């Protein structure tokens, strides 16, 4: 038994190893920072659990300390990590959300959904949807969390995320556009940062980077072995037969891509497809030159990271009338 406990079942590098006894060894994002007051950024945070009963799902809420009685735009954020890594407590994301809230003057909710390989991919989407419903239970000011009752402006709600988290944000916006409007899940905008979209046939410059392409090619088969086709509409929203983007449930979209990121052409293709889909909102795209996938998370103090943050802050705070 002791030997089998140490015996490797499979590994998905550089993310994790799985042993035959069921133990999962994650290799990235395993550090944890507790919530609290960050005096450097002037941001306070708390964790809320029991949103999805009998699960590890929780959210970390971030609030500017000096917001007084102000109503702020609300950003619901889904972290990246290939659907299997990181949490809102990971330093990479805790530090990023502190910076985002400080720069943008928003209230933010960082979502911890259940991850692979312990849970199949549909659980991450279902958890994220249940969190959205919990968030909107506060829209009349009588929900269970006082910070949301007192400070969230439910006329200005945004979804955002990076990489796999941006994929979740897109899929949540598609769900919003297809559900009964009486659910009162009203999303003003979606900000997708280096979104994880892919497809079976290479586009743009993808074929020029065979090593990178091979890594992305195998991700969805790990994420969803029962439907490993990279044209699954959840990962390829512009695939033949995918639901039309015209039903995207928001009124504005910002797509951020990076020049050296192999996913950039998928982000551009999404931008172009959304623009010609008949969707009645406004879409814009921003490209950071000379940088790779989620570069900003690893160097928040670089000028290019600051420029990206300013674009996001502007997107979250622009008046709606500018988009009518």
- Rg result: 19 Å
- Helical amount among residues, as a percent range? 25-40%
Reported for the largest beta sheet, the result is:
9 strands, mixed
Mean pLDDT: 94
| Helical stretch tally | 10
Q: What's the quaternary structure here?
A: single chain
User: pLDDT under 50 segments (min length 5)?
Assistant: none
Number of strands: 12
Strand-residue proportion: 15-25%
In N-to-C order, the SSE pattern is HEEEEEEEHEHHEHEHHEHEHH
Distance between the termini: 65 Å
If you had to describe this structure to a student in words, what would you say it looks like?
By secondary structure, this protein is of the alpha/beta class. 31% of the residues lie in helices and 22% in strands. The strands form 2 sheets. It has a 9-stranded mixed β-sheet, sandwiched between helices. The longest helix is centred in the middle third of the chain and has 16 residues, at 121-136. The protein is globular. It comes from Solanum stoloniferum. Belongs to the 'GDXG' lipolytic enzyme family. The active site is at residue 163. Residues 75-296 form the Alpha/beta hydrolase fold-3 domain.
List the topology elements.
Layout: H1 2-5, E1 8-12, E2 16-19, E3 24-26, E4 37-38, E5 43-49, E6 58-64, E7 72-78, H2 91-104, E8 107-112, H3 121-136, H4 146-151, E9 152-162, H5 164-178, E10 189-193, H6 210-217, H7 219-223, E11 252-258, H8 264-275, E12 282-288, H9 295-298, H10 303-317
Parallel strand pairs: 7-8, 7-9, 9-10, 10-11, 11-12
Antiparallel strand pairs: 1-2, 2-3, 4-5, 5-6, 6-8
């Amino acid at each position: 038994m002791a030997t089998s406990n140490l015996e490797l079942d499979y590994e998905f590098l550089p993310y994790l190893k799985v042993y035959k006894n069921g133990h999962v060894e994650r290799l990235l994002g395993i550090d944890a920072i507790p919530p609290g007051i960050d005096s450097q950024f002037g941001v306070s945070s708390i964790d809320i659990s029991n949103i999805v009963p009998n699960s590890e799902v929780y959210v970390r809420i971030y609030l500017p300390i000096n917001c007084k009685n102000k109503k702020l735009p609300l950003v619901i954020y889904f972290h990246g990590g290939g659907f299997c890594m990181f949490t809102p407590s990971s330093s990479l994301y805790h530090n990023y959300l502190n910076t985002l809230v400080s720069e943008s003057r928003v209230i933010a909710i960082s979502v911890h959904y259940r991850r692979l390989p312990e849970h199949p991919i549909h659980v991450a989407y279902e958890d994220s949807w249940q969190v959205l419903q919990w968030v909107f239970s506060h829209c009349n000011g009588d929900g269970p969390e006082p910070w949301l009752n007192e400070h969230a402006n439910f006329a200005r709600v945004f979804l955002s995320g990076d990489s796999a988290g941006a994929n979740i944000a897109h899929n949540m916006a598609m769900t919003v556009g297809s559900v009964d409007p009486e659910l009162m899940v009203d999303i003003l905008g979606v900000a997708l940062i280096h979104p994880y979209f892919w497809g079976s046939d290479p586009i743009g410059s993808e074929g020029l980077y065979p090593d990178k392409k091979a890594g992305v090619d195998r991700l969805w088969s790990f994420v969803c072995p029962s439907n490993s086709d990279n044209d699954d509409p959840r990962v390829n929203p512009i695939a033949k037969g995918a639901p039309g983007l015209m039903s995207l449930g928001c009124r504005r979209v910002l797509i951020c891509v990076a020049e050296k990121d192999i996913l950039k052409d998928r982000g551009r293709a999404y931008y172009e497809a959304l623009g010609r889909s008949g969707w009645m909102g406004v879409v814009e795209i921003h490209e950071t030159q000379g940088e790779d996938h989620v570069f900003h998370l690893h160097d928040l103090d670089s000028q290019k990271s600051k420029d990206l943050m300013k674009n996001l802050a502007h997107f979250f705070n622009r008046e709606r009338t500018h988009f009518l």
